[in-house]
Sequence to fold (373 residues):
Amino acid sequence: MATINDRVPVSNIKKIAVLTGGGDCPGLNAVIRAVVKDAINCGIEVYGIEDGFLGLIEDRIRPLSLDDVSNILTQGGTILGSNNRSNPQNYPVGEDKDGNIIYKDLTDVCVTHLQIRKIEALIVIGGDGTMSVAKPIADKGFNCIGVPKTIDNDLYGTDITFGFQTAVHVATEALDRVHSTAASHHRVMVVELMGRNAGWITLHAGIASGADVILIPEIEFDLDKISEYCLWRSQRGKRFTIIAVSEGARPKGGKQIVDRVVEKSPDPIRLGGVAKWLATEIEERTEIESRYVVLGHTQRGGTPTAGDRILATQFGHHAMQLLKMGKNNRLVVMQGGVLGDVDINSAADKQRLVPSSHPLITAARSVYTSFGD
Ligand code: F6P
Fold:
């Protein structure tokens, strides 16, 4: 990882653009604000691209001013709009006579839309899907600087992405809230959390809320063991069990439960449904009344936590520092508490999963938390 010690700008960059790609997440506006304010402060013009790469394909690009980013630090979502179904390299442009969709590579069109306005660099705020979509543009020699976003915290190369802390906060509060019903009605309560193939949100929120069982995609679970654990708790007087389950968790030798397939998305699989299935199976096996809750997009909404606002501001500033230093095709990262940058292509199409030896797993096991294994 490269770090910036020298703060003296060397590049003479005059115009940049910024876009937000993939699913929204808390802190996107905080990054946009940091980028726009930092740029204008240094005499650099900033353009905003609407709805991610779709706006770049369709040439929906507008100048951003200080007024545009005033009062957005605490707002969830993105003032620019986002889109997770438009890949310029593989964009549907029509149908052939047999009804098959015709795809075209519109990378050059995107670069032209930037060059016409004399834009010299693009700040891409997104997750692994967005970074992989940016890759062909960077490969054409157009400077792309990535800023790592996702509630899932699964972007390769960085220890943390902004949005994650807010999602953990929302998930923890929800797990805390189901506690009272679980205890009053002596139930098993299963709470399904987002995160795709990574269990970071569930692991953190599960530990923070003291969930009895934490099920993550990285550790396959055994239904019999979970049922035995619920019964064991009942026998020792704890007549309820709280289960935090990742949407991507699966039983030993089984498959993840897919809710839908979103055509044209860089990652078309949408997971969901494991909590309902688990609650039914556990009730059948234990005869303890069971219910489930799916938090879904509530984890992505609302105002970012203080931690995410700070991280997003740091990331936005660092992206600007990289541009001012004349760096090309870098991804802003945080490693071991230090801000730095890596090659933007190193994050494309990869996921950072929870290692089974992670210290948080060991700590959770030490307080009798079950991982269902
Ligand atoms: O990557 C963020 C995320 O919220 C995942 O946790 C979840 O699986 C997915 O996006 C949901 O996507 P969509 O908003 O397209 O339903």
Summary: Residues 23, 84, 150-152, 194-196, 247, 262, 270-271, 300 surround 6-O-phosphono-beta-D-fructofuranose (CB under 6 Å). The two ends are 36 Å apart (CA to CA). Residues 50 and 80 are 5 Å apart (CA to CA). The chain is about 35% helix and 20% strand.
